Amino acid sequence: MSTPVPTTAIDSHQHFWRLSRGDYGWMGDHVKPLLRDFMPEDLERLLRRAGIGRTIIVQAADTEAETDFMLEIAAQTPFVAGVVGWLDMEADDFAERLAHYSRNPFFVGLRPMLQDLDDDRFILRPRVLDNLKRVAESGLAFDILTFPRHLPHVAEALRQAPGLRAVVDHLSKPAIATGSLDPWRDDIAALAAFPDVSCKVSGMVTEARGDWALEDLAPYVDHVAACFGEDRLLFGSDWPVATLAASYGEVANAARTLLGHRFGPEAMEKIFGINARRFYRLPD
Length: 284
What we know:
By secondary structure, the chain is of the alpha/beta class.
């Protein structure tokens, strides 16, 4: 039996996968180090070393089978606090599927893989918008996986689905490798104007150069810190995807260092745990 980690810190964004399941369409030789199974036993030691007590698993495949897979892991893994799953937002039976998964206490939100879809305006399709409103009514969280070019469309969807509790994953993947800030800077600020929208400080190292340094990430962290503030930022590791560019400890240290320049101890407790617990409505 594993020893509990005596901390309230939460990693709001990590993944597990078993390749034999066969539905990870985005994987290939371009991410060759990720082409193996990543399961709870691979992460537990890393969490302990980083002082992280609980995690949120986020979907990595666009199937309900992936959602079921994660919920099975959550039921068997003490450090997993919740699951952000996948549902077909254009399905005729979306309302029924949402109700079905909502009955599972580990199901805390859902995420379509907007960044991988051919239609940048997918989130504005009439049926998707109708179902987005259903998510808002349900009180479940909605994870926004996008590139910067999607952000104006997301802003319009948020206007049409008032009350949606949403969170931007990975700062919406700005072009950290080139140092470009615009138009991402204004578009992120527009999303931050919605009071129910938060932002995950995650996924930065894989958008940076291979020889990234803290100063490369700092302008992006500083901007979301100014836009969202201490109450709407959540730490996420994006493990194991982040291992393409950094270890778990390096990712956690980068976030703690960069955010620690702006926020004091109480605010850091929010960003590294309290905010995730509140946003995903986790039990204490």
